[in-house]
Amino acid sequence: MARVEDYPRYVEEIIERYGQYKPAYGDVEVQTIIDREHYHYQLINVGWNKNQRIRGCVLHVDIKDNRIWIQHDGTETGIANELVEIGVPKQDIVLAFLAPYKRQYTDFAVN
Question: Considering the entire predicted model, what is its pTM?
């Protein structure tokens, strides 16, 4: 089972792994943003696809109150599933992108 003090490392490893993927279209840079002091983690795309500006969050995760809060998840697999696979208990993962009243219907933490 995963330990709470390892959560930042797990999140960073996943973010950095996804940061290795480059979109198949346009001139798009993948940026990893890691704030270790405040436990904020983001993966964003910025650049251009022909004449269209590309800028958007792929993944946004915070760690607060000893839980992993998934603010946005634009991955196919789902970072929550990856965290569970490496041993993070579902009760330590909040699907913050869902409205609070909907979280009770998942197997994950409500808050």
Answer: 0.93
CATH classification at residue 77: 3.30.310.110
Structural domain including 82 reads 4-103
pLDDT of residue 31: 97
Residue with tokens 């991955």: 75
DSSP per-residue codes, 12-36: HHHHHHHTT---SSSEEEEEEEEET
45 DSSP β-pair partners: 30, 56
Q: How many domains does the chain have?
A: 1
Phi, psi (degrees; rounded to nearest 5) at 31: -115, 135
In this structure, the strands spanning 27-35 and 93-94 are unpaired
Could you report the average pLDDT of every consecutive run of 10 residues in the chain (111 residues)?
91 96 91 97 97 96 97 95 97 97 97 91
Residue 108 within a domain = no
Q: Is residue 17 part of a domain?
A: yes
pLDDT at 65: 94
